[in-house]
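Dear colleagues,

As part of the handover before I leave the project, I'm documenting each prediction I ran so the next person doesn't have to rerun anything. This entry is a single chain, and its sequence is reproduced below.
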Amino acid sequence: MINIENLENEIKKGVIDNSYIFCGLDEQLIKEGIELIKSKVVEPGFEDLNYIKLDGSTTTFDEIMNACETIPFMGEKKVVLVYRANFLKDKTDSTDKKTYGEMSTYLKDMPSYTVLIMYYLFNDKRETPKKNRKLITLGKNCKIVHSEKLKKDKYYKKVEEVFKNQGKEIGKNELRYFSEKVQNNFDIIKREVDKLINYTYGREIQKNDIDKLIPNKSEDDIFDLVDFIAQKKIENAIDLMDELLFKADQHMLIIVSIENHFKRLYEVKVLMLNGKKLDQIVSYLKLHPYVCEKTMAQCNRFSIKQLQQLMKICLETERKIKSSSIDKQTEMELMLFKTFMVNK
C-alpha cells in the first residue's frame, strides 16, 4: 500500500503498475493521482480512444472486462477507469459482492496493455484501508493507493494554489488560519474558497471573514455525531465519541455541545414547520446562511417528538454526571445507546 506522494515518485521513475485501487475521503486528490497515471500512459490526442471511464455504481463485471480486453488504438497501452466503484466497499449487497468476486479473479490475469484504475470514497474520516478486508485481499494483485491528508507544508501550498487559481491573493497568516480551520478535503476547500472570495470581493481576506464563514472543527465533529445518531450508525458514533473524549477529556462540555446542537435543530425544525424559509431563519436565529442550510438539511432526519426526547436524554445524562461519581465514559456511551432507541 502506498500514498499519493509515493505514487508520484514511482511515476517519475517510470514505474507503472497493471492495476490500481485508490481510496480515501478526498475525491479531488484521488482524481489528481489518476491524472498522473493517465498522462504518463495515454498518448496526447488519443484520450477519447484509449481512456475509458465507467461508473462503478452501475457498471457490470462484463463491461469492465470488455473495456480492459479491447486492444489500445495507435498506442502501447490504454487506461480503464472505474470511478466510485462501490463494490470495493467492505459491506455491500449481493450484486456488488458478486462483482467484487469476479474482479478479484480477473485481476490475477489482466492484459499487459491495459492499466485498470478503480476508486471508491470512504464514508467518513474514521474509515481506513486496513479495516477493509477486500482491499487487503486485492492488494496481493493490485497496487492500493491511499489518498491520505497532505503534510502541512504541502497542504498549505496546495490550498494557496486554490486561491491563486481563482485569481485571489491571501496573506500567509490568513492562509494558515484558513487551512487549519477548514475541513481537509479539497472538494470542500474549493467550495469554501469560492464562498470566501465572493464574500470579500474587492478587498483583502481577514481572519474575521474566515471565522464568519468556516465553522470550528469541533462543531463539525458534533454535527457528524448527530448525523450518525440519525442514521443509527452505532459503531461510528461510539468511535467518534471516543475520539472527542481523547482530544478533550471534558465530558460535560461534549454533552452540553450535543444538547445545544439538538436545541438548535429543534428551533430550526419548528420554524421550518411554520413555513419559514432559509433567509427568514437566518435572520431570526442570527445564523450564517451556509450553517443554516446544513442545519435545515439535518433537521429533515428528525421529527419534533424525536428532538424533544433527544434533548431530554442529554439533560438526564448531564444531571447524572454532575451529581454522582459514576463512570463518565460508560454513562456517555449509555447516552448514545439511548439516542439510538428514539424513533420518529
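The mean pLDDT is 89. The longest strand covers residues 114-121.

All the best with the project,
I.
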